C-alpha cells in the first residue's frame, strides 16, 4: 500500500504507518511545520500552441508546481481558465495560524502536489467514558478539479488513503454542521479570506460547545433522581408525544392524520421505555442522577438506535443533536428547580 506522498509530511508526536514523516514532539503552528518539510508553490502559465507556423497563446492556463529537492523539476498538474486563483500553501498555513491559533496535527502533499492536507485536533470530551476525538481538516487541490474544502472528520489524515477516507466521510454528511463544513472555488477572489474565517468559526464553536458540556454535566451529576414519577416526567419531556389533532380538522382526513400521530406516539413511548430500562440498570456505567439519565439517552441515540449517520458529528454539530440537546435542556432545567 502506497502513501502517495509528494515528499516527507509533518506529523505531531505520532509516526504515521508509512514512516515518511518529520515527527515533532512539541506543538507548533502550520507555518513552522511547513518550514521543516519541502516547501512548494504553484504558478499559472498560459498554454501556447503552434498554429500555422505561429505560436499562439490560448485562453487556457497550466498549473505548474515548483521544483523541490526530492523532485527538482517543474510539474504540470492541470489546466484551468484565467479566472482560476491559486491559493498558495503558505497562505493556508498563515491563515490557519492567524485564525485557529492551535498546533497543527498533520501537514503534507499527495502525488506530485495535486492535493494538500492540513489537520488539527478539535476540542474534545468524553462520552460514556470514551473520548470523542475530532479533527479539523483542510483539503486543497492544485489540479484544477479539486477545490478548497473544510471538514470535521474522525480520521487523522496522513496519506492518500486516509485523505480519501476523510473526504468521503465528509461528503456523506453534507447537512449543515456535519462533515463538510465549507467549500470554496478557486475562481473566488475571497477564497483565502473565507477559509480563514471558517476555520476560526469551527474552532470557536468547538471550544464553546466543549465548555458548555463540561459545565452542564457537572450540574446534572449534582442531583439524584429519587422516584419513578420524576423519571417519567423527565422522559416525557425528552421524548414527548405529538400534539393531538385540533378540533377543527376535516373529518375526511382525520383518520389518516390520526394514524400517523399514533405511529409517532408509539415510537415515543417505546423510546421512553428503552431509556427507562437503560437508566434502571441495563445501561453502561449509569449513575442514579441527571447525568446518568443523560448518559442513558446518549447511549441509546449513539449506540442502540439504528442510524446511517456517524454519531461523532451529531454530538458537536449535526442535526442528530436535536434529541440530546433537548435532553440536556430538560435535565438541566430540572436540576435548577428548588
Helical proportion? 40-55%
Low-pLDDT runs = none
Q: Rounded to an integer, what's the Rg over CA atoms?
A: 26 Å
pLDDT averaged over residues: 86
The ordered H/E elements are: EEHEEEHEEEEEEHEHHHHHH
Largest sheet: 7 strands, mixed
Short description:
The chain is 41% helix and 22% strand. The protein has 338 residues and is α+β, with helices and mostly antiparallel strands. The longest helix is centred in the last third of the chain and has 32 residues, at 251-282.
Would you give an account of this structure?
This protein is an alpha+beta fold. The chain folds into 2 domains: 9-196, no CATH class; 222-335, no CATH class. It is 41% helix and 22% strand. It is built from 9 helices and 12 strands. The protein has helices at residues 30-35, 89-99, 160-171, 191-221, 228-238, 251-282, 290-304, 311-316, 321-335; strands at residues 9-12, 21-24, 42-51, 54-65, 75-81, 106-110, 115-121, 125-127, 130-132, 135-141, 148-153, 180-184. The chain has a 7-stranded mixed β-sheet with strand order 2-1-6-7-10-11-12, sandwiched between helices. β6 and β7 (115-121) form a beta hairpin. It is elongated. The model has no long low-confidence stretch (mean pLDDT 86).
List keywords for this structure.
alpha+beta; 22% strand; single chain; 338 residues; seven-stranded mixed beta sheet; three-stranded antiparallel beta sheet; 2 domains
